[in-house]
Amino acid sequence: VADRPIVLHVEGLAKSFEGLKAVDGISFDLHRGEVLSIIGPNGSGKSTTINLLSGFLKPDAGTIKLEGRSIAGLSAPETSAHGLARTFQNGRVFGSMTVAQNVALGYHKKLTANRPARGLQRIPVLRWIPLLGEAAASLVPWPSVRRENRAVAGHVDAEIERFAERLGPRRDDAAYTLSYANRRRTEIARALVSGPTLLLLDEPTAGMNQSETAEMLHVLQRLKAQGHTILLVEHKIELVTALSDRVLAMDGGRIIAQGDPDEVRRDPQVVEAYLGK
Ligand code: ADP
Ligand code: MG
């Protein structure tokens, strides 16, 4: 993997909150087709790292390059226009929208980013909808979304098909009727529909039971086999070990170990970091 081109280059990335160094100068590279996982105890800076990479937070210092282009300090819609897609630790879908509509929002971001404005793409608020709270659903121009949905239905259905037996039958149901696991699956489908260069997943199996976690591992293994480049934040060490090419362990905003999954999970500093919490 190491001889493949670098998709993400991070150097000296730092962010403090009122003096607390949440991310304290971290550096790493992510190669095309690689799955890199970040592990670490609660509060070690994993979500902050994802938020910095995806433009939800502005770094105090550091370099972030996506395929050689600097994206540090860009807004979330701008990083998504550059090919980065993410999911959230707590899952964010719009309860009043159907599964298909939620997924379609990810495609609208792509349209907005890559083509001259026309139709739906003229409506800048749509770029923000997936990033905002439930209240934003009232801003969605429904008739245009329904028209546009027909155009993007093929792409939407292809992503829903990844979770076929789970999401397929729920395609046209409002997301508020979904189980927690299905809401997480919907969110991942939305991130993928834009065909991202880099996928950031923040604890995709949080709150899932054992069989749901095993299913998610299966989906992620297929994504990896298809060549997706993935940065994964995850607590479940078996999943991390099964999936990752490399693992970074964080503690107190710093990278305390990195390398092969089995090496990192046995690293004395890593064991200590978990035991110490
Ligand atoms: P992790 O995802 O590894 O559990 P986080 O990145 O969420 O950790 O948090 C790292 C540290 O930064 C924690 O001490 C957390 O309380 C703090 N933190 C995270 N986000 C904020 C914020 N928006 N404002 C203040 N402190 C924050
Ligand atoms: Mg977190």
From TrEMBL:
Keyword Amino-acid biosynthesis among UniProt keywords: no
Keywords: Amino-acid transport, ATP-binding, Nucleotide-binding, Transport
Listed transmembrane segments: none
Any GO BP: L-amino acid transport
GO molecular function: ATP binding; ATP hydrolysis activity; branched-chain amino acid transmembrane transporter activity
Domain ABC transporter: 8-277
Family, as annotated: Belongs to the ABC transporter superfamily.
Identification of the protein by name: ABC transporter
Organism whose genome encodes this protein: Pseudoscardovia radai
